Amino acid sequence: MESPAMVDAVVMFPSPAIGHFISMVELGKLILTFQPSLSIHILIVSAPYSAGSTASYIADVAATTPSISFHRLPTITLPSSTNTHYETLIFEVLRLSNPHVHQALLSISKTHKIKAFIMDFFCFFSLSIASQLNIPGYFFFTSGAGCLAASMYFPTLHQTTTKSFKDMNTFLKLPGLPPISSSNFSSAASDRNNKAYEYFLDMAYCFPKSAGVIVNTFAVLEARALKAISDGLCIPDSTTPPVYCTGPLIATNNQTDGDTECLNWLESQLSQSVIFLCFGSLGLFSMEQLREIASGLERSGQRFLWVVRNPPSDSQSLDISALPEPDLNSLLPDGFLDRTKEKGLVVKSWAPQVAVLNHKSVGGFVTHCGWNSVLEAVSAGVPMVAWPLYAEQKFNRLMLVEEMKIALPMKEDEKGFVTGLEVEKRVNELMQSDSGKSVRERTIAMKNAAKAALSEGGSSRAAMSRLVESWKH
Predict the structure, then answer these.
(1) Hey, how many other C-beta atoms are within 10 angstroms of the C-beta on 348?
(2) For the chain, how far is it from start to end, CA to CA, in angstroms?
(3) What is the rounded CA–CA span in Å between residue 418 and residue 52?
(4) Which of 74, 94, 292, 471 has its CA 20 to 30 A from that of 443?
(5) Nearest to 353 by CA among 441, 442, 420, 259
């Protein structure tokens, strides 16, 4: 008796960081629109810190997209002495998950023919398993092509100096990118003595060994960086893998679940009159910084919608899901809410960001420069004020301001603190000045380019089609 024909499958391994996870699932959904007969299997690793839950998102995807199934890998418990740098924690959990990834791939391959194994770039440890099992291994890069170019060039930079970036105080020239201050690298990658630096370097050495890199961006947004990559300038000593720009990938479901107070409030505001301030799933400020933002907003006289979270507890700045609801009256300056009630709305902890950015009343966005937030703003045609907080966000600010010209920079002091005067100045500049107007026009042009990239005959659709076609042979 013949065994049943095996179903073709793609296995995906996202990083547990919530933004990375959702982007990869959206990539899975996109793959299915090109090849609906595929079965998609997503391996889930628990995050080494608690930063919001993906449970409702997973349940929603499982209910609406039966071709996607989720496989939860056993939880890894790190020793309590482990370095608390959040990138290092993620790398450690993913490294220790490798045996479980191996088991999962063996188990799935009993009933499916695995055409591709797509890993978040943080999961580079698993590329060796894909090679052992003869499965083409791809990286999914959840940041932009500029950041990919810098990551690919990282080994070359490493070889040209013995200093840590944090000790250099200089500008570096990288292929396809504007001059980069050595202070613009993420804190994890800027210190040679940090374990995460070693992991980023190991990851960069894996790019040429992969079957390709899928990037959540689109060709027009980052043309110069993409040309440098395709010309082989970023990996001068080895082969550059194929790069597929398939973005912007944006999650639009669940966007109005829960509190719609802010959407109702926006309905009563004039077109493009409101500046929206929101800082991502890990973006937390001290009480002193929150009060400076409040004074800057009040003095600016602009209409605003501001998402406020509780300041981090001293023990663990990334453990945010355990934070209680903020008490706005005690956090913000005395009388602030009352004095600004005609002009602004402060919401606690969360807002439906995609829905807010796409509302006609929103005319500007103060963002932490997380890449998903950047793409959401570009897709909505909303210009930005760039205020980076962690990870590769300082690098993203450089790209947004100097290269793409779709944001104005928020300037912080050497400790990362931003004054109320700076908040007032940048918000007014974005909403009222000629430089703000120029950034707005450029952002709207990029919104149209993003739409074109995803349309029939567009660059992102063509890249996705090439990728899926390559699995048929």
Answers:
(1) 16
(2) 27
(3) 26
(4) 292
(5) 259
* Amino acid letter for position 130: A
Nearest-angstrom CA–CA distance, 278 and 301 = 19
Q: Burial code of 200-221, b = ≥16 C-beta within 10 A, e = fewer?
A: bbebbebbebbbbbbbbbbbbb
Reported as type and span, the H/E element at residue 7 is strand 7-13
240: its two tokens:
């550059």
Angle at 428 (CA atoms; ends 424, 431), nearest 5 degrees: 145
User: Measured between alpha carbons, how far is 343 from 275 in angstroms, rounded to an integer?
Assistant: 11
The three-class DSSP label of residue 444 is: helix
Cα-based distances in Å from 397 to 13, 151, 318, 388, 411: 28, 16, 22, 7, 11
What gap in Å lies between CA 150 and CA 157, rounded to an integer?
A: 9
Omega within 30 of 0 (cis) for the link into 312? no
Pairwise CA distance, residues 151 & 392, whole Å: 11
Q: What is the maximal distance between C-alpha atoms in the chain?
A: 79
pLDDT in tens, the chain (473 residues): 445 678 999 999 999 988 999 999 999 999 999 999 999 999 999 988 765 678 889 999 999 999 999 999 999 998 876 566 778 889 999 999 999 999 999 999 999 999 999 999 999 999 999 999 999 999 999 999 999 999 999 999 999 999 999 999 999 999 999 999 999 998 889 999 989 999 999 999 999 999 999 999 999 999 999 999 999 999 999 999 999 999 999 987 655 555 689 999 999 999 999 999 999 878 899 999 999 999 999 999 999 999 999 998 765 455 555 678 899 999 999 999 999 999 999 999 999 999 999 999 999 999 999 999 999 999 999 999 999 998 899 999 999 999 999 999 999 998 999 999 999 999 999 999 999 999 999 999 999 999 999 999 999 999 999 999 999 87
- The residue assigned the tokens 């890249």 is 463
Rg (CA), the chain: 22
